[in-house]
Structures are given as C-alpha cells and as structure tokens.
Design a protein that fits this description.
Keywords: ATP-binding, Membrane, Nucleotide-binding, Transmembrane, Transmembrane helix, Transport. With about 650 residues, this protein is of the alpha/beta class. It has 26 helices and ten strands. Helix 5 runs parallel beside helix 7. It is elongated, with a radius of gyration of 31 Å. Bound molecules: adenosine-5'-triphosphate (ATP) and magnesium ion.
Length: about 650
C-alpha cells in the first residue's frame, strides 16, 4: 500500500504544481471581473463555517444516518467530502446548508450559532440534480436568479453586468442564449447544464457554496474544468464545500481539506495530504491498489467495518480530523475563535442576515419577476398551448354542431299571462345540458393543461424556496401569468360555440363565464399536480375535471339533489355555478315573455344572481390554488424535516 500512497503523494504535488501555474485554466481571465464583481456585491465574503456534534436521526429508520460530526471550515478553503455511497455525505451538507435540521448539535457562522433559516440565507446550496426550468435560456435563468437574490440592492444595469461576468467566468458565453432544455428536448450539454446549475447559486454572490456531487454525469475534462473553477472561487475567499464521488487524481489534488465519512460516521477531517497518513495509520488495506488516491481512500474506509470502528477513536488518527481543542464552549451559543489563531470574522450574524435580506428583491418584485418568467415560459410552450386551443376549439365546434339544428332555440317555457294558454310543451333541460356540455369541454381542454403548467414548477419551487425565493410570490406570479393563456383558450372555445349554437347569451358574458371556468379547472390542475405523480397527473386531472363538470345540476337536476338534501355537496363544484350563470343569462332576455321563475325552480337554479355565480367561480378557483399551495409548502417542509 505504501508505494501506491507514495505515487499518489507525488501525483498530488505534481498536480499542485501544474495547477498553481494556472496556465491550463481557461477560466482564469474571465473569472477576474467576476471576482471583482463578487467583491463588490459580497462584502461579507469570507466567513467561517463550523459544526459541532451535528447528527441526524431518522425516526422512520430508527437509526442515525449521520452520527455526531464536528469541524471548522475557513473562508478560502476548498473542502471535499468523500465516502462510500449511503455514508451520509448529502445529509451532512444539507445540514450545513440549512436544508435539513440536525437532531443534535449546532452549525456556527462566524462562531455564532446559526439556525437553519440563517444558514439558508447565507449558504448557497447546489443540489445534485440539475433542477432548472427547460424553457428559459441560460442567460434568462441566471439573470432571474440574480434579480431575485440580489435585486434588492442592485439596479438592473449592475445586475446585467454582474450576470455577464458570471457567464464569462463559467465559460457559458457560447450558449448564453440557448434554451436550457431537458432530456426530451433540445438541450445544452451536461457539463454546461451543471455550470448553469452552479451559476444559479453564484448569482446570489454567496460567501459559502455547498455542492452535492457537482461533477456527476460529466466526462473527465468537464469535471476537471468545473472543479478548477470552484477552486478558483475558493481562492477568492469563498468557502466551497463539495461532495465528490471518486474524483480523478487531478481533481483530488485541487482539494485543500478533506472530510471522510463512513456509514454515517465522520472518520477524518484534515488536509488532503494528511488523509494519506490517516489511511496509512488506519491499517486497513484496500482491496486493490490504485494509482488514484481517492479510489484508495474510499476503498480503505469502506473496509473500516472489517477493522472495527474503534481504530478511529485513536487520538492520533483523530487529531487532524476534529479540532476539539478549538471549542471554547461546547454548550454555549458563542465560540471565541479557534486555537489555530484564525480570528473570528467581523461580520456579526444579525448584520449578515440583514444584508442578506436587503439584497433580496421585495415580495411584490419577486411576484412581478415570477409573472414575467411565467409569460416567457408559456410563449415557448407553443405546442402545448396549440393543443389546448385546438381541444377547446374542437369541443366548441362539436357542441355547436350538435346544437345547430335548434337554430338557437334552446329554451321553451310557459308563456306569461295572458298568453299562458297558448304555451306548448316546455323544454328546460336543453339549456341546463348546454352548461354541462360546456363544462365537460373546458374540463377536457384545461385539466391536463393546468397540470402541465404547474407540474414542472413543483421541483423548481422547492429549490427556489430553499434558496430564499418567496413561494407565495412565485405562486401568485405564476397564476397571473397563466391568465392570458386561459383567455386565449376561452376565446377560441366561446367563439366556435357561439358561432354554431347562436344562444341568447351575450358573447362577452359567455367569454367571462368560460374564462372563470378555465380559471377553476387550471386551479384543479394545480391541486392534482401537487398531489399526484407527474406521469399520472394529466389523465387524473382530466378525469376529475370531467366528474366535477358532470355535477353541474343538469342530471340529476339540482332541484332533485335538493330534495335529497345533498345540495351542499353540489355547490362545492364549479360546474353548478357555471351552469346557473349560463342558464340565467340565456333566459333573462326572455323574462318578459316566459315564466322564467318556474323554469329556474324546475331545474333548481336561482334566478338573477349571475354576479354571485361568477364570484363563486372566482372563489372556488382561488381555493383550489390555496389548497395546492398548502400541499406544496407542506410537502416541501416534510422533505426538509
Ligand atoms: N429522508 C430520508 N429518509 C430516510 N432515510 C434517508 C433519508 N435521507 C437519507 N436517508 C438514508 O441515509 C443514508 C445516507 O444518505 P445520504 O444521501 O446522505 O448518503 P450519500 O453519502 O449522499 O450517498 P450517495 O453517495 O449514494 O449519494 C442512506 O442510507 C439513505 O438511505
Ligand atoms: Mg448523496
């Protein structure tokens, strides 16, 4: 094993020399303005992050997934976290980033205990999965993040400039106007996507960057370039912590410090070169000898269980790993700096928090930005909009055709006195059926569309919320941005229906009725998108909206439902209110000729309350959105607990 470690040591120094020359770093030049920009925007750059005895106990598993871990990470360090799969790496960095609350212990920023809320504001977290909206360009996505995260203190010109620097630093100029795309559509490369993912967090000009496997899925060259970039950022004073899985030796050589985890236990924290001695002293032979030091280390700590964990409690092994002497007070809330003489940063926590909050765009600006982004997204989802419009138009056309033979004569009532004796057979049901058919048609068109519009935002909302975006502003902006789309769809449906059916209702009124019903069904789509698996959601949304639409008070009649004492159930559904408004507006022009009161009573509707009907549609659609918002927030909180 000695020769392997020796060759690894040589390779580290060789690589150090190579990278220190910085000749091979294509980003160096473009990074310089970015760093200047960071210094301007991140005047709080350079704080220390410490953690003391943090553990995570999962009650569902009835075991710890992270045993008490402690350490200090100083500004300007590039720290790698390594360990076998399932050893708790992601769990540890999520605690450091405030995404998961520890069961015990505390995380300190500048030697002050920091809650998960503080950490979330101050630590930028790049998740392993690239959760990015596919319909935006690279520049739009990064600019949006910058506007939200630091738009409170910088004007748009400065932000644009900052994003230019950032894009240049990340080597993304050639694709800055390309759509990000996803696995199903045209897309930028995996490496570029990863760099966009990191840029979304760097857009906040953070002081600490925590990344979960930033090189996963990248080829060797792309992985090295991403890690080199992170190293350069750390050299500018940022704390950079990243989980890294089997790095090649050049990447390993970039790390300043290494934290090793095995089976949820911290087994080492110290300089990358000291990890060599640690593995040697551990006395656990790797299964095979590799020229890659990272492979050798992972292999060795994977065998720790065979050697017995007690070997790790030896003070020699632990000395470099956990600076226990640095903790002045283990139980107190303040620490007085560590024994290595690193002074505590001048930035007090309240001041840092205040600055982080000031930097963020105000709530209404976030809602405005989310609305603009939603409009851009929809303008690029042409095929989905076309499908929705076509469905609305075809269903409007078919219903219109089926009514064509009535030539607009959809109602036959009893004449008012003195013409009552001239009355022929009455027909109230046809008009009630029109309401139900319209509801079914809109349900077909809007149910799946509502799901699609919100389903892909579900993960993004979660990520952005955790990064400090306001979820309610996001939700409101998204809802407002969907109104033009609903209006276009409602207009197509109403036009075809009106043209062929020629009902008595005024076109403007019909359009508003349809628009509000679209609003309800889109809201229903939001609820389904929040509750059901993405692949099942469109079909489920259509099914539920068809059921809701069928319960419109036509069959069974609302009057019959009332006799069953079940009207309170029916009025929860939007179909009843739409149909009542439709019924009213069609017969009100005839009220001087027919006994409309008896007609309405026979079906079960109430006359002359169209504004109440429309208000109820608005309320129901809004309630659906509130429900979906609560579900999303609840599930997001559950994921974090
Ligand atoms: N929310 C959770 N509920 C239950 N178990 C969990 C949860 N999150 C993680 N675990 C378990 O905790 C352990 C550590 O998970 P973690 O994701 O931190 O590992 P990891 O080191 O990042 O693994 P990998 O390298 O495969 O990403 C695993 O056994 C995992 O199954
Ligand atoms: Mg992981």
């Amino acid at each position: 094993m000695g020769s392997v470690l020796g060759s690894w040591r040589d390779s580290i120094s060789a690589n150090r020399g190579c990278h220190d020359s910085r000749q091979d770093v294509s980003y160096t030049d473009s990074l310089r303005p970015h760093v200047l920009s960071l210094n301007n925007t991140a005047s709080d750059a350079g704080f220390n992050l410490s953690f003391e005895d943090i553990s995570v106990y999962k009650t569902s598993l009835k075991r710890h997934i992270l045993f008490p871990a402690s350490g200090t990470i100083h500004s300007g360090s590039f720290v790698g976290i390594m360990g076998p799969s399932g050893s708790g790496k992601t769990t540890l960095i999520k605690v450091l980033a405030g995404k998961v609350r520890p069961s015990s212990g505390a995380v300190y920023v500048n030697n002050q205990v920091s809650s998960h809320i503080v950490l979330r504001s101050l630590v930028a977290y790049v998740p392993q999965d690239d959760i990015i909206l596919p319909d935006l360009t690279v520049r739009e996505a990064i600019l949006y993040s910058a506007r939200i995260r630091i738009g409170g203190t910088f004007n748009d010109r400065n932000l644009q400039q900052y994003v230019d620097y950032l894009i240049a630093s990340m080597g993304l100029q050639s694709v800055e106007n390309h759509l990000i795309g996803d696995a199903t559509g045209r897309s930028i490369s995996g490496g570029e996507r990863k760099r966009v993912n990191i840029s979304l967090e760097l857009a906040a000009a953070p002081s600490t960057l925590v990344l979960d496997e930033p090189t996963s899925g990248l080829d060797a060259k792309a992985a090295l370039s991403v890690m080199t970039l992170l190293k350069r950022l750390s050299e500018q004073g940022l704390v950079v912590v990243c989980v890294i899985h089997q790095p090649r030796s050049e990447i390993f050589a970039l790390l300043d410090r290494l934290l090793l985890l095995s089976d949820g236990k911290q087994v080492f924290l110290g300089s990358a070169s000291a990890s060599l001695n640690f593995v040697t002293r551990l006395g656990v032979a790797p299964c095979y000898k590799s020229s890659n030091p990272a492979d050798t280390i992972i292999d060795a700590i994977s065998n720790i269980h065979q050697a017995g964990f007690s070997a790790l409690t030896d003070s020699d092994n632990y000395q470099d790993s956990i600076p226990t002497g640095s903790w002045v007070s283990k139980s107190g809330t303040e620490r007085n700096g560590d024994s290595e003489g690193r002074s505590s940063n001048s930035g007090g926590l309240p001041a840092l928090m205040q600055r982080a909050q000031q930097r963020r765009a105000s709530w209404h600006k976030q809602a405005y930005l989310a609305c603009l982004r939603g409009l851009v997204q929809q303008s690029r989802q042409v095929s989905s909009l076309a499908l929705e419009i076509t469905t609305g138009a075809i269903t409007g056309l078919l219903i219109g055709l089926s009514n064509f033979e009535y030539k607009g004569h959809l109602f036959q009532g009893v004449f008012l006195p003195p013409l009552r004796s001239l009355s022929s057979a009455t027909s109230y049901r046809l008009l009630a059926e029109q309401g139900m058919l319209c509801c079914l048609a809109i349900g077909c068109a809007a149910g799946p569309a509502g799901v699609i519009l919100f389903a892909e935002d579900r993960l993004v909302l979660n990520r952005e919320w955790q990064s400090g975006h306001s979820p309610s502003a996001f939700f409101l902006g998204k809802t407002i941005s969907s109104i033009p789309r609903m209006a276009v769809s409602a207009l197509h449906f109403a036009s075809f229906y009106m043209l062929l059916t020629t009902p008595m209702i005024d076109f403007g009124q019909l359009f508003i009725n349809c628009l509000l019903y679209f609003y309800c069904i889109y809201g229903l789509g939001c609820v389904v998108a929040a509750l059901v698996r993405r692949q099942d959601a469109p079909v489920m949304a259509m099914l539920i909206s068809l059921v809701f639409s069928a319960l419109s008070g036509c069959a069974p009649r609302l009057a019959t439902v009332n006799e069953w004492k079940l009207k309170w159930i029916w009025i929860i559904f939007p179909g009843v209110w739409f149909s009542e408004a439709n019924f009213n507006e069609n017969i009100s022009p005839l009220s001087s000729l027919y006994d409309t009161k008896t007609a309405a009573e026979t079906v079960g509707y109430t006359l002359n309350r169209t504004s109440t009907d429309l208000a109820m549609l608005l309320v129901i659609g809004t309630v659906y959105r509130i429900i979906s918002y609560i579900v999303l927030v609840f599930s997001s909180r559950k994921n974090q607990s």
